[in-house]
Amino acid sequence: MTRGFVTVATGKEEYYRQAYQLLRSFRLFHPDTPFAILCDRENEYTRAFTDTVILKNAQRSYLDKFFLLTDCPYDENIFIETDCLIYRSLDSFWELLAKEYDLTAFGYNECPPAFFEDPAYAAEKFLGSPDACAPAFNPGYLFIRRGGKCEAIFRDAMRIVAEIRADPAFDNDAELYCRGKVRDDPVLFLAMKRSGCACAADPFAGKCVFLPSVSKIRTISLSEGKLDLTVWRRPLTDCSLLHFSSRKAAQEGLYAQQTFVLDLICKGRGALTVKAAESRPVYLLFAAWKKISVFCKRKLRKKP
User: Do residues 28 and 101 lie in contact, with contact meaning Cβ atoms separated by under 8 Å?
Assistant: First the structure.
């Protein structure tokens, strides 16, 4: 049986750069563990991965994540979103997730269908009852066991997408669409429920942290493998990864600083240089730079 980690990058070069940074942070703690990329082309970034899988029918949208269900290269796979960085070993993920379900995640199992303005309508349409519940989880980290079960979930997910697009009731559903495209999250929730799969562990079990939910960062250090945060007033120590999914300048500044630190570590710079780069004043410089960058871009867009 083969095991490995995997990410997905299609479309913009930005996603490939993120995937490369994810891989470099992963290698700090897993120098030899297989890590594959599912993508729509080979380039300078994909060469660093253990395995490269070219998606023949890539949509260059959120829905490309569904190809994890059919194209993963290993028997058991853990998917990590490209816009994450790793802060400690992820070995515990196998123990937490590689159980009875072929598709699973860290999350809740009894929730009204999420990302629908009318959850009762979605529950009745897709699950047979307005009171039906489905799993809810961050799809930025998943366990996928390759085989017929996940292939069936893929086909069902594509049917759900087609039904959503064909139903006028969803046309103006602001929660369901992101930048004009159907979100992957609600479709995965429904397909997982209909397949009989469920979340195998509590959402905090893997200590995967979604940056927009963080109220305070107490310690963040790639060089020391240390990430201590407060999430919704809940203190978390020794977190495993940080998911930087955000368009806020201050949070983008944090990602820029952390990838700068990662570059210094990978180039073998001295400990004092790395520690200086991890300091708060340096973070504030990156945050200010991002704010100025966003301001200038908005001004340029307004010009006739």
Answer: no
Note whether 209 and 231 are within 8 A (CB).
Answer: yes
Phi-psi region of 60 (alpha: psi -120 to 50; beta: other; left: phi over 0): left
Token output for 89: 């070993």
Taking the model in full, what pTM does it have? 0.93
pLDDT at position 116: 94
Separation between Cα atoms, residue 154 and residue 178, nearest integer Å: 21
- Asked if 33 and 5 count as a contact pair (C-beta separation under 8 A), the reply is yes
E strand or H helix at 164, and its extent? helix 148-166
Cα–Cα distance measured from residue 146 to residue 140, given in angstroms and rounded to the nearest whole number: 18
Read off the tokens for 133. 């519940």
Helix (H) / strand (E) containing 103: strand 103-104
- Structural domain including 228 reads 208-302
Residues 230 and 255 in one domain: yes
State the CATH number of the domain containing residue 182: 3.90.550.10
Q: What is d(CA 251, CA 257) in angstroms, rounded to the nearest whole number?
A: 10
Own/partner pairs for 232-237, CB < 8 Å, 24+ apart?
234/204, 236/204, 236/207, 236/209
> pLDDT of 283-296, one tens digit each?
999 988 888 887 78
Q: Are residues 119 and 265 in the same domain?
A: no
